[in-house]
Amino acid sequence: FIGFWENVQDVTFKAYQMGLSDPRKIIFSAKMGLALMLISILIFMKEPIKGLSSHSVWAILTVVVVFEFSIGATLSKGLNRGIGTLSAGGLALATAELSRLAGEWEEVFIIFSIFTIGFFATYAKLYPTMKPYEYGFRVFLLTYCFVMVSGYRTREFIGIAVNRFLLIALGAGVGLGVNICIYPIWAGEDLHNLVTKNFMGVATSLEGCVNGYLNCVEYERIPSKILTYQASDDPLYSGYRAAVESTSQEDALMGFAIWEPPHGPYRSFKYPWKSYVNVSGALRHCAFMIMALHGCVLSEIQASAERRQVFRRELQKVGTEGAKVLRELGNKVKRMEKLGPDDILHQVHEAAEELQDKVDKKSYLFVNSEDWEIGNRAKDQDLLSVDDNHNTIVLEHKSRSEAVLDLRSVNMPQSWDSNDMKKPMPSIVSSNVYQKQISWPSRVSFTADAVPQVEESKTYESASALSLATFTSLLIEFVARLQNVVVEFEALSEIAKFKEPVESPAAQ
Amino acid sequence: FIGFWENVQDVTFKAYQMGLSDPRKIIFSAKMGLALMLISILIFMKEPIKGLSSHSVWAILTVVVVFEFSIGATLSKGLNRGIGTLSAGGLALATAELSRLAGEWEEVFIIFSIFTIGFFATYAKLYPTMKPYEYGFRVFLLTYCFVMVSGYRTREFIGIAVNRFLLIALGAGVGLGVNICIYPIWAGEDLHNLVTKNFMGVATSLEGCVNGYLNCVEYERIPSKILTYQASDDPLYSGYRAAVESTSQEDALMGFAIWEPPHGPYRSFKYPWKSYVNVSGALRHCAFMIMALHGCVLSEIQASAERRQVFRRELQKVGTEGAKVLRELGNKVKRMEKLGPDDILHQVHEAAEELQDKVDKKSYLFVNSEDWEIGNRAKDQDLLSVDDNHNTIVLEHKSRSEAVLDLRSVNMPQSWDSNDMKKPMPSIVSSNVYQKQISWPSRVSFTADAVPQVEESKTYESASALSLATFTSLLIEFVARLQNVVVEFEALSEIAKFKEPVESPAAQ
Asked: What parts of chain B have a pLDDT lower than 50?
């Protein structure tokens, strides 16, 4: 009993929290209750009109079915239902007239027509572009069969069709009236907020990635949810994942939003919802770069902390400026403002140029020269000491010790653990802080003696420094892709007639 | 009239093609027609039993609603409907008994109970984890209201509830019988095929990316659909996009598949469909790397063709071997076979090592040494001539001419085109075959004189060579991530009891 009581408390708490985080859900539920109450009262009142009342189920059915969360969805479902009912009713009446001509074969004719209509309507429904009208087809089939079957029995085809239609109209009227007139919930607004939220999420992820990379955040065990692309708590991950995953949600919301009449700040017919989706798509194109950056953070092969520090200031600046641009754009979308006269990308481009400049001067840090066919350059030890940031870091002597390879230890079946590759390799145990285990199990487990292992680990070491180059150039590519987001945003702000920006004191 | 005729022809052709590509759709439509026909015949036959027949709509409604494409969806909807109806019926009967106690307030009590039930059922429906049961809640509401309203009118609460239930059971029986007994369509099979298809798609994209990169495929104009992440015809793009986008489809199919009884090759209760989704998720984690590789192909900043050629053989081999592994795994999933005793990753790891080896020896090609603070190395001209591939390519003298920057000319609003940055920059017009226009418009358009522009283009040139390093290290990261796919596949093959592989003659 105590368990049950705790369960109830738990459910109540969760329900309360849901209401707190989105009060629209409470309002919507109350609206639903209200609509059902109204339709019941109407049916009670109409008791004298026997004919209508005995099929009252249609009115209730319509209210229950048509009552969707957003106005767009409600309207689109209502229209589907209306067109489906009307066309099926018309077709059924015509077929019924025809069937009289069939004489004694009337029954066979009706049954056969049901099969034919059922076949074609279902087949048409399966065509991909027909998906939004799926519900209409269902209603069509239902109405057709119902009118044919009950009509044949009672010989009142027209009566049944008209009766049904009146009740459906009544139900639709009550449903639409309550849903639209009392605190309407707009799909377009949801779409607008979703796009804004995506901007913020990507910005957070970008900052998180750059900071994580610079602070050498290491995933002890990478959550297997990330490896199999499932939702996870990691804020860095969930930020861009939400943006990447929102495609289908956006498409659904857009599908509803185009049904909605002009309202609130969206004051034109044919409001360009498609452009919002485009902006979000361009943002997604950027988010894939963040995803690749996150891949560098997760990666098995990592550059040494010292080398990362050399580029710290520049990387950090690009990250911060990039996130600033994203947040700024997100806010512009939210407030529906055009871009100001200043180039929003100016600072992030400047930061990217500084980074590029630094890369130009220090790109020897990306490569290991020991095996160059054209002969070695200066010893590695000298490299890191040439540093203009005054935070000179002495490389910890072993030029190859930065080979930070880790054993990806997620979801490993037992058979892996029993292999011998988990024991530390003598050749790569170094003084490095990020001492890890080797990660290229395949060859190692097959060549069971020590010498090839050493050869092995040597080979993959040079990749470690390259990973810094990868991070840098992905970041620069991210900045390049920002351009595209700005272009799409400008297109949106033109078509959707965003207002001119208010001169804020912060602007120069 | 001719236009109409052409339209008809067009639709017929499309419908015919849909039937050809997936004959199951034709069969399903015929099944739907058959089920509707059967239920109509049953209703005709039952004419003597007046009570049942006058509410025949419930039987038809149930067939129309429950008849879903896959068995899993049909069963889950049927169960939703059953539970919703039964619980609502029970609750309604109880409330009706209670309402008698209310005496003259009976009507008010009923109306109030409808509001309360409507509110709570709708609120519960909105809770995220309740989403699969959405339909059940709808049916619950509908039944409750219907029983209360018509029961109050006719005073036959129990009669109505039983009547409804019998007709729904009849409809459900016909629907389920036809759908399951005649050529059943399984969601599990769809999921299985989807996973296989994703493997093939990613493999094709991988090969396409590597080949495209080596052959210096240039997108004259990047389709704006790619920039805003929409479906596009580009086969290279659609391959990985399908794998990335299939999350929601997989989740839906899995949600249905778990309802399906053991059948065909899936012979155990609680078949591990979740593991298929995990394999696909791990594959998606790889696909993101392909996406990043494709980003390199699309990128504005490109390495020169000559430098790419140096790594041609190694890159090609990794691409080919990687695709081979993916196809092999895809086929294993398809045929439901375990991995053989040989290490499937052996060859791709070997290829990656060769690539890494080459990188070790030639990493000077990734960087431009001119601006190094530690002093220049040998002149760039010497670099490319040191080549062990016997396809020595003479670098076209200007070491900086590989700065291939292109103006991303998609969706540019007119305002961009009027800027002065489109005129060719004197400093970067080179003898390079991939002569393009500069792409960093921001600064250029602000500093309108020529000198800063030269500075500018210099700065971004060194990124061009780095882009080769990025491509290489992303490819290596891809190989590392393959490991994870193999691990997930092995987990799947264990839990799902895949059969031992047949010794093929090709195996050593």
From this structure: 377-459, 507-508
Angstrom distances, CA of residue B52 to CA of B40, B86, B169 = 13, 18, 12
Which of B33, B64, B281 lies at the smallest CB-CB distance from A142? B64
B229 vs A281: CB contact, 8 Å cut-off? yes
CB contact set of A343 (below 8 Å; sequence gap of 6+): B442, B445, B446
H-helix segments, A67-156: 71-101, 106-125, 134-154
- A376 interfaces chain B, CB cutoff of 8 Å: no
A342 phi/psi in degrees, rounded to 5: -75, 150
Identity of the residue numbered A502: V
CB nearest B145 (choices: A40, A123, A361): A40
Q: What is the least distance, in Å, from the CA of A292 to any CA of chain B?
A: 6
B contacts of A356 (beta carbons < 8 Å): 459-460, 462-463
Q: Is residue B234 within 8 angstroms of chain A, CB to CB?
A: no
Give the separation between CA A244 and CA B44, rounded to whole angstroms.
53
Q: What is the mean pLDDT of residues A216-245?
A: 76
What pTM, to 2 d.p., does this model score? Answer: 0.78
DSSP label of B220: S
- CB count within 10 Å of CB A151 equals 21
The better pLDDT of the pair B221, A423 is held by: B221
Cα A346 to Cα B505: distance, rounded to the nearest angstrom: 62
A window 383-402, beta carbon within 8 A of B: 383, 386, 388
pLDDT classification of A195: cutoffs 50, 70, 90: very high
Predicted complex ipTM: 0.76
Distance CA B409, CA A487 (A): 10
Ranking A214-223, A345-354, A437-446, B160-169 by mean pLDDT, the lowest is A437-446
Beta carbons of A300 and A405 less than 8 angstroms apart: yes
